[in-house]
Amino acid sequence: MITCPKCFKENQDHYKFCLGCGAELPRDVAPKPFTGNTPPHGIQAAQPAAPAFTPQREPSQPAFSASPQPAFQVAPAQPAFSPPPQAAQPAPAPAPAAGPTPCPQCGHPNGPNNLFCGSCGFRLGGAKSNVAAPAVAAAPVHGQVVLTALRADGSEAGSYTLPDAAHLYVGRETGHIFASDSYLSPRHASFTRSGGTLTVKDEGSLNGVYRKLTRDVPVELRPNDVFRIGQEIIRFEPIQHAPPSPDGVERLGSPSKGYVGRIALIIGRETTGNAFPVPESGMHLGRERGDVLFPEDGYVSGLHCRLAWDKGKLFLTDLGSSNGTFMRLREETEVRTGDVLLMGQQLFRLSL
User: Quick one: DSSP state of residue 332?
Assistant: First the structure.
């Protein structure tokens, strides 16, 4: 990685200009080894020493579980005296062991003490009861709207309560959790309450507003849509068949049979880097497995996302990546509780 001497953003070794400020990057600096805050998906961070015995383990939980499971259960205390014999009564059934709780929004299994989903950030509210609540429609937006900043490990870094107004703006000059991010525009995005719903809109910011995709839920990619995985910003460009000239002459060019477009890496404000054709059979993106690999980006999972062509449309699907797949918003979009937005270099979880 190359650190920009102007804004200190880390860029990949093959970039010539900084993704943050556009300054030219020094080429004589030795690449900085990547040290991610979280281990890559599918690879254990460190091999633990073999214990003297192997206890029974509960299903794996996200790294930011509210509290660890106890290593044992205390047996109920026995009475100090023997009561007179009574009619035999059936013993109460033992309480079921607390298992993983599926997220009601994305289905990801979470530990019984988790307050938030480890995949999509949805507020679980604690797993005190194993009885699933009946599904209800999204509640109208009448109360407070809170943006909670998230660290790389999923913990909370601060929150900002939006003022009770029908229309308001957020950006670098809005509040304390935004002020330190130089990648946020002064007026970055706007939120609008209308008819019991909340919408967000990019206000022409330089770096855009992204929303995290739900795991295993395909989302259509329209022409020139931009999405982000790890530190890679990627644009989908469909093949545009040029019409013949006014006098009927067909244009020369390589045949595009079997391909629907290409994906291009955005490495500058008006600059693209490598581009890869997208076949009708689809393709996978990842750090270790797939058709297009990003081996130097430690924030990309081993197998991160999939592009699939179906009925004349291209769909993007997150495959359970560690850090998520984000789609850049192009128009005003409705958001709900648990949605995660990427603005600047920060993640914000919405609570309505």
Answer: -
3-41 pLDDT per residue, tens? 888 777 777 776 666 666 666 777 665 544 544 444 444
Distance CA 349, CA 151 (A): 11
Determine the CATH number of domain 211-240+258-328.
2.60.200
Contact 337, 215 (CB under 8 A): no
Q: Strand pairing partners for 272?
A: 266
Query: CA–CA separation, 42 vs 289, rounded Å?
Result: 11
Domain ranges in the chain are 1-33, 101-130, 145-208+332-351, 211-240+258-328
Q: Which of 40, 21, 29, 12 is nearest to 302 (CA)?
A: 40
Contact, 158 vs 146, CB < 8 A? Answer: no
Q: Would you state the structure tokens that stand for residue 337, as one six-digit string? A: 């509780």
* Tokens read off for 10: 């880390």
Write out residues in the chain with pLDDT < 70, as ranges: 14-23, 27-99, 105-106, 108, 113-123, 125-143, 175, 255
| 38 vs 31: CA distance, rounded Å | 20
The tens digit of pLDDT for each residue in 228-267 reads 999 999 999 998 877 888 898 888 877 678 999 999 999 9
* DSSP string computed for 209-276: EEEEPPTT--EEEPTT-EEEETTEEEEEEE---PPPPTT-PPPP----TTEEEEEEEE-SSS-EEEEE
Rounded CA gap, 17 and 138, in Å?
Answer: 44
d(CA 298, CA 285): 13
The predicted pLDDT at position 55 comes to: 42
Tell me phi and psi for residue 178, to 5 degrees.
-100, -20
Rounded to whole angstroms, the Cα distance separating 138 from 143 reads 13
Angstrom distance (rounded) from CA 119 to CA 104: 12
pTM (2 decimals)? Answer: 0.61
